[in-house]
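Quick start: read one record
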Amino acid sequence: MQTKIAANAQAMKRWLGKAETALGNHSDRLNAINIFPVADGDTGTNLYLTVRAAARSLQDSAPDPAKPPTVQNDVGAVLAKAGQTAMEQARGNSGTLFSVFLCAAAEPLSGHTRLTATLLAAALNRAQIRAWSALSDPVPGTMLSVMEAAGRAAAAVDAAQNGNDSNHALGLVLDAAVEAALDAVIRTEGQLEALQAAHVVDAGGVGMLLILDCLRSAVLGEELQSELLDGLHGYDVQDPHIHADLPDDDGVEVMCTISLSPLDAATLRQRLDELGDSVIMSQVERSPDPEGRYRWRVHVHVLDPGPALDLISSLGEPTDVSVSELAMPRDPEPLEADVRSLEGK
């Protein structure tokens, strides 16, 4: 293990930069094995574009001379900024859940300029709990299970260290989190009938594993583990897109951002559950506006977007609205188009 560990705000920026590159390199393979919750082959694209938004939000920010160094070097503040940008520009189920993960992970780190084993364990645990709760109908065998496994492993190792805040302890927690995430990815195939039938692991879970290995790499100053994905079922560059032979999924994916009171947010979730599935709702910001409303990122799969959009508009004024066909074919050309549109924002 490297002894030269960087566990500060700059390391968090490197983490997201590494994750952007890794997901860009693996997006086509993730798309190829994406068959749950719908076989639309876009998990790699969605994760890449969402992480890219988070990473670019930090790269584009210049130091603010009006703020003291302790504020600018706040690990939690850096991740909170990246998480909020990711949430506003999240793509699909996987991108939305990653955004929830990132925003939640930032909370225990607020006010700290250095990551420790205890802080990391708390961040991973908060993040996996928040991700599970964001979904109306969470399903094991997805990236949620990978997040949970990483969080539990980190907590167990940290507990065994009895509050040790050394770099060595932090390295042990990072190693344990990635190892547990890999084991969880392998298990996904047996947890979901669709994955078992296709003999593949969950695409979102693999993406989350890559993201966690990028965190390990950025903090420990080590290279990514090139052999990490060896042997994962379906993850072979010679394989075709598995979802291509599966029946198309009817309906569309609707996403937006909207300010709602707690009561209206609960009402919207309940009624969206009645209209469709894959409902994800999570707060973009933790503090309310002067009228007591919170900003929410909303995601749902429905057969017809009309009733869902009417419902959302009846409760507030949505922004960043997108409606995408679930059966739309995905290939490298749309990915490049999406990247250009993201850069123009």
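The domain at 9-245 is CATH 1.25.40.340 (Serine Threonine Protein Phosphatase 5, Tetratricopeptide repeat).
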